[in-house]
Design brief:
With about 170 residues, this protein is an alpha/beta fold. About 35% of the residues lie in helices and about 10% in strands. Helix 4 packs antiparallel against helix 5. It is globular.
């Protein structure tokens, strides 16, 4: 297991096992010690920031303290089955990511269709832990492209003070 920075949030991934295991980005995160696998919703710590594209609240830099204390969790499921999965409540602290472009080969350049590793890297970037985001993305040939495609929006999202700022940033890019 790799030595992790105490100022970076602990990463969790709830595995729903709905996708092709050979394309599962989370598996590589587990192998290299960057994330912890969760196999039941009850295993997600209650105050963990759960990334949910259908959440009412957007992820902001101000969520960093909660994330560092309790972690960040991605839900690894098929995008084809995402809506019913994410209608379920996983945590008291669910957040949606602002609009970003995918770099993974399956959904390249599509807005919002991020892989689990892209979602975690986006959250880390917004929370001000860019080095860890770069580290986890470096495990994939296409990973650095995610940061290149989204460099300016991610920098702007990381400076946002509130949801209104994020909405304005999204309008200016997308």
């Amino acid at each position: 297991m790799r030595q992790l920075d105490r100022k970076a949030p602990r990463l969790f991934v709830y595995l729903m096992r709905q996708d092709d295991p050979r394309k599962c980005t989370s598996a590589k995160l587990f192998r290299f010690g960057y994330a912890t696998a969760v196999t039941r919703p009850s295993e997600i710590p209650s105050l963990t920031v759960v990334l949910n594209p259908f959440a009412a609240t957007i992820l902001l830099p101000s969520d960093r303290d909660v994330a560092v204390r309790h972690g960040v969790c991605a839900i690894d499921c098929s995008w084809e089955r995402a809506e019913p999965v994410f209608k379920r409540r996983f945590s008291r602290c669910e957040r949606k990511l602002p609009i970003l472009l995918a770099a993974n080969p399956t959904s390249y350049a599509q807005a919002g269709l991020l892989s689990s590793v892209e979602a975690l890297a986006a959250a880390l970037s917004i929370l001000g832990v860019r080095r860890r985001a770069t580290e986890i993305l470096s495990l994939f040939k296409w990973g650095p492209t995610f940061l290149t495609l989204n460099r300016e929006p991610l920098c702007d999202y990381a400076r946002a003070r509130n949801a209104g700022d994020v909405e304005e940033i999204q309008r200016s890019y997308f």
